[in-house]
Amino acid sequence: MEIERKYLIREIPQNLNQYPSKEIEQAYLCEEPVVRIRKSDDKYILTYKSKGMMVRQEEEMPLTQSAYNHLLKKADGHIISKTRYMIPLGSHTVELDVFHGYMKPLVMAEVEFDSEEAANNFTPPEWFGEEVTYNKAYHNVNMALHQ
């Protein structure tokens, strides 16, 4: 189960390069249900996501590089490219995505939770901007297929 809230960013934290990061490339094979392929540094993953906004089922399976490259040719829409920074925030980790290419200069943060209650009780820090958890336009699948 994936429980996450998403935010636009008002102000990027200083010294961003001090945090661990990874380069991500991802594309979509299907919109309903969401079927995504992702290259995260040197790892390749196939992901299935059910319908939902803040809470939804998510299953991940490893791919080989050649399987990823084969499926990438079959992907719909745009390929999303971003740098993801993992920033500690209390008992949580903010996944700060700095988008590249056609998505630049978009910067978004995702915070994952163990329960809906924890998600609903979360108070975002001042550097977060507008919450877009329930705005379909900011789901990566829609940014790849409908922009």
Protein architecture, described:
The chain has 147 residues and is mainly β. The chain has one domain (2-145): Hypothetical Protein Pfu-838710-001 (Beta Barrel), CATH 2.40.320. It is 13% helix and 49% strand. The protein is built from three helices and ten strands; from the N terminus they run ββββββαβββαβα. Strands 1, 2, 3, 4, 5, 6, 7, 8, 9 and 10 form a ten-stranded antiparallel sheet that branches. A hairpin with a 2-residue loop joins strand 7 (76-89) and strand 8 (92-99). It starts with a strand and ends with a helix. The model has no long low-confidence stretch (mean pLDDT 95).
Overview features:
147 residues; mainly beta; Hypothetical Protein Pfu-838710-001; ten-stranded antiparallel sheet
**What oligomeric assembly is this protein in?**
single chain
What percent strand?
A: over 45%
Number of domains: 1
What is the N-to-C order of secondary-structure elements (H for helix, E for strand)?
Answer: EEEEEEHEEEHEH
Rg over CA atoms: 15 Å
Structural class: mainly beta
Supply the CATH superfamily name: Hypothetical Protein Pfu-838710-001
Portion of residues within helices: 10-25%
- The number of distinct β-strands equals 10
How many separate helices?
3
Summarize the topology.
Blueprint: E1 2-9, E2 21-30, E3 34-40, E4 43-49, E5 55-56, E6 58-63, H1 65-72, E7 76-89, E8 92-99, E9 107-112, H2 116-120, E10 128-131, H3 140-145
Antiparallel strand pairs: 1-5, 1-9, 1-10, 2-3, 2-7, 3-4, 4-6, 7-8, 8-9
